[in-house]
Structure formats: C-alpha cells, structure tokens
Amino acid sequence: MHTPSGTSLPVVPAALAPVLPSRYGFDQDPAPCAGIRVTADTLPGLESVSPADEGSVWLHDALLGPHSADIVRYLSLARSTGGPVLDLGSGAGRLAVPFARHGFAVEAVDRDASALERLEGWARRIGPQVAGLVVTHRADLTGLRLEGSYRLALLAGAMVTAVPPDSRPGLLREVAAHLESGGALALDYTAHLLPGLIAEPRRTWAFQVPRFDGIDEWVVARQVFDLPSMSERITYYAARTGKLSSERVVLTTDKWIVDPERLAAELHSAGLHIEGRRRHRIDDRTESVLLVCRADD
Predict the structure, then answer these.
(1) Nearest Cα to 295, choosing from 100, 168, 149?
(2) CA 97 – CA 133 distance, rounded (Å)
C-alpha cells in the first residue's frame, strides 16, 4: 500500500540514500529522504514505460494501479465501437486479457517478450476461448507497422509518453490508417501543469509495493523533469526483504512530457479529431487526461 500522509516512514527507504541521475546536471544529492512525498491514494505520473524484469513485476503493477479504473471506461467504449481491439504497449495483458474475457478479439503489441509471454500464459489459464481471442505482436511503437484493421485502438497506461515526440506523428498516422470506419483511438496520459514543473522540477515519492509472495518491498522514486527537452526520468530505488534474503534494486524509466496542443495538432494531421476529453485533477500540479479520437469523415 502507499504510505498515508503524515505517517512516519520505516528505516528501509531512508537507508537507500538514492542518487539523482547525473545526466540532468545537478551538483549535489539531497539528504536521504529529504522532501519525500507520501500519499495514500495515487502516485501521479510515476508509471514505468520500460520493460519489466521478473523481479519488478509487482512494482510495475503498483505503478499502474492508479489506472485500474480505466478498464471499465475502455470496455464501455469497446461496446460502442465493437472489435477487433488493438492494445498498444499491452504489457502483461492488464487490458488485453479482460477484453478477451468479454468476447473481444485483441491484438496485443509490446516490445517486451517476457511481458507477452505472461499475457499468453494468463489467457491460457483462463481457458481456450479467451486464449483464442488474443494475438500477440512483439514490436516497438517507434516505427510500428500494422497489417490488420481495428475498431478500437488503445494507448493506455500513459504509453503515449513512451513514444519520442519525433516518432509520435508517424505512430498516430499508422494507427489512423488501420482504423475501420466508425473506429476510435483512445489514449491517456498524466499532464504535468507547466507552472508546477517550473516551481518543482524534482520530486521524490516513497511508497510500499503491494506484494503477496512473502516479500516486503519499499520504494523511493525520484522524478526529475528536464523542460528544455520536455522529458523526464524516474529512478526507483527498491528495497526488497524476505525471510532469508534481501536486495536493493535500482530501475529507471525515461518518458516524454506531453504538450496537449502539440498532441492535438498531431492527431489532426493524422486524420483524427478529438471527440471526447476527460480530465481528472490529481493535485494542484497534475491531472490525468483521457482522449477519445475518431477518424475524420
């Protein structure tokens, strides 16, 4: 669970003494646990868009936890569009498998072979009817080439932030070209409001990862924004303690800050228009944005 605001942190995160990424040019590291934010509800913008190794699956699931309600919204949209569904950046099947359980044919695209293997294994465990509705495709979203046609395409879990800005227009054009008539592209991202980024370009979070395998895991996450390049790096310093052993792991993920006006222009250039926009304010600096886009007539 995430540590409730006002609750004292355990010794483990403080002992990690994390070091900020050197490529952002900071001269000094802050004192251990200085300025750490704790939250009982959400971890805004901490999603990892890097492949997950076997030991980090629990952390990746926790980082996507704030997005869990999107399954209901995306399923509702799929019922209006029909299938097939294209799940871009599918990971281990957080959306693809539930969609297949509801009878939708799904093509799941991800660059991480191990994630796709977990997806396929999950679908097989549910049964042949579900497994038969899921097709996996290993590919990077940069330079993606599609062969099928779809009624609904998803860039969920802030996956659009994993695509470099110079590659994003090509991806959007490719997706739009493979949408059937009446189809839709739906995507979400965490919008960091510019005044907040200027005032606080470095943020630190501490939280406990929910695990059910006997391992106690605490994480300190350092979020560093670089405004000139409109990018961010998140470094996760994890301490994992079991009955017989313990380990410390450092993971990083690099993402891009989404400029809403630029994204809207890229969608328009790809032949898509924004039909619906849903905003949810997370705090005074951050909001979650969901866009539903349709092909131009």
Answers:
(1) 149
(2) 9
Closest CA to 19 of 218, 237, 201, 207: 237
Residue with tokens 């961010």: 232
**Residue pLDDT, tens place only, 61-75:** 888 776 677 888 899
Distance CA 117, CA 119 (A): 5
- How many angstroms separate the CA atoms of 43 and 209, rounded? 12
The answer to whether 222 and 193 are in contact (CB under 8 A) is no
Around Cβ 22, how many Cβ atoms within 10 Å? 8
Task: Determine the angle formed by the axes of helices 168-177 and 260-269, rounding to 10 degrees.
Answer: 40
pLDDT for res 207? 87
CA gap 8, 36 in Å, rounded: 11
| 195 prior amide bond cis, ω within 30 | no
pTM: 0.82
Q: Mean of the pLDDT values across residues 88-106? A: 93
For the chain, the maximum distance between any two Cα atoms, rounded to a whole number of angstroms, is 62
Q: How many Å apart are CA 290 and CA 83, to the nearest integer?
A: 20
How far, in Å, are 4, 93, 178 from residue 267 at the CA level? 39, 26, 14
Of 186, 247, 202, the residue nearest 37 (C-alpha): 202
| Whole-number percent of the chain with pLDDT over 70 | 84
Render pLDDT for 112-154 as a digit per residue (tens, 0 to 9).
Answer: 888 899 999 999 999 999 999 999 999 999 989 999 999 999 9
Distance (Å) of CA 64 to CA 7, 13, 60, 121, 148: 23, 21, 6, 20, 28
Phi, psi of 14 (to 5 degrees): -65, -35
Neighbouring residues of 180: CB distance < 8 A, sequence distance ≥ 6? 149, 150, 151
- Is-contact 235 264, C-beta < 8 A? no
